[in-house]
Write a structure and sequence with these properties.
Blueprint: E1 2-6, E2 9-17, E3 21-25, H1 36-42, E4 47-51, H2 68-81, E5 87-92, H3 94-105, E6 110-116, H4 127-140, H5 146-153, H6 156-161, H7 163-175, H8 178-188, E7 204-209, H9 217-226, E8 231-235, H10 242-245, H11 247-259
Parallel strand pairs: 3-4, 3-5, 5-6, 6-7, 7-8
Antiparallel strand pairs: 1-2, 2-4
Helix pairs in contact: 1-11, 2-3, 4-8, 5-7
């Protein structure tokens, strides 16, 4: 892993493989290691760029509220710094929100777009949930969010069967800086771009876990029906982090989509 100066911060990133570029963008409270299995699967065919979002992992924290314009500019700044003209983009949850904004703000930089476990709108009635999570992060650090977050991210059966993996993901959540978490939440909670994403022209694949309580299939159905030509895939027996809970299915869907000519 390396770091490079992008805009006003040092961004941690990793590059592997050889071929057309694919950029991977992780969820809130994770880092680029969330993509270990997908990156390994794509590296024989693609040059895979993964990075830590502002305020997460090894990327610096900037104080205050973030916006998706800012988080998207971090991506284009990283691409510029690495001399990458165009890329496929795969984003999950917050990463999928960044991908939608990127497709609107810098369409000339994208080839194909994968939006997983995401949404184009956070309803106003979700505000108390975000207020509660922010209060916990500020008073206890993100360690106070681990149990509830794992409960949303994985099905009960998967959590019971994979305790060591739950500990690893739990450590990622707990180590997220509270200021980075709060900065990204400021962007997420005000997301409302459903009316705009019909302008996205990149070929788009939308993926969601059938048992995702945080961004349920109905939210992905809205995205897929709003973006012209988008395809929707619902993964059975998976919750929010479907790339980890059902990695073989996720890898097959993403690799198959990126390798086709359409």
């Amino acid at each position: 892993m390396k770091t490079i100066r992008v805009n006003d911060i040092d961004v941690r990133y990793q590059v592997e493989g050889r071929g057309p570029w694919v950029t991977l963008s992780h969820s809130l409270s994770c880092d680029l290691t969330m993509w270990d299995e997908l990156a390994a699967a794509l590296a024989p065919t693609f040059s895979v760029l993964r990075y830590d979002t502002r305020g997460h992992g090894g990327t610096a924290v900037s104080e205050g509220a973030y916006s998706f314009e800012q988080l998207s500019a971090d991506v284009t700044g990283l691409l510029d710094a690495l001399n990458i003209g165009r890329t496929h983009f795969v984003g999950l949850s917050m990463g999928g929100m960044i991908g939608q904004r990127l497709a609107l703000l810098a369409p000339q930089r994208l080839n194909k777009l994968v939006i997983a476990s995401s949404t184009s709108r956070i309803p106003p009635e979700a505000a108390p949930l975000w207020d509660e999570r922010l209060a916990i992060a500020r008073s206890q650090g993100c360690a106070g969010l681990v149990d509830a977050t794992l409960g949303r991210w994985f099905t009960p059966e998967f959590r019971a069967a994979r305790p060591e993996l739950m500990q690893r993901i739990g450590r990622l959540i707990a180590s997220t800086p509270a200021a980075g978490y709060a900065g990204c939440v400021a962007a997420i909670r005000h997301l409302d771009i459903t009316a705009r994403i019909g302008a996205i022209r990149a070929p788009t694949l939308v993926i969601v876990g059938a048992q995702d309580p945080g961004t349920p299939p109905a939210m992905s159905e809205v995205i897929a029906s709003s973006i012209p030509g988008a395809r929707l895939e619902i993964i059975p027996l998976a919750s929010h982090l479907c790339c980890i809970e059902q990695p073989e299915t996720f890898k097959r869907l993403v690799a198959g989509f990126l390798k086709t000519d359409s």
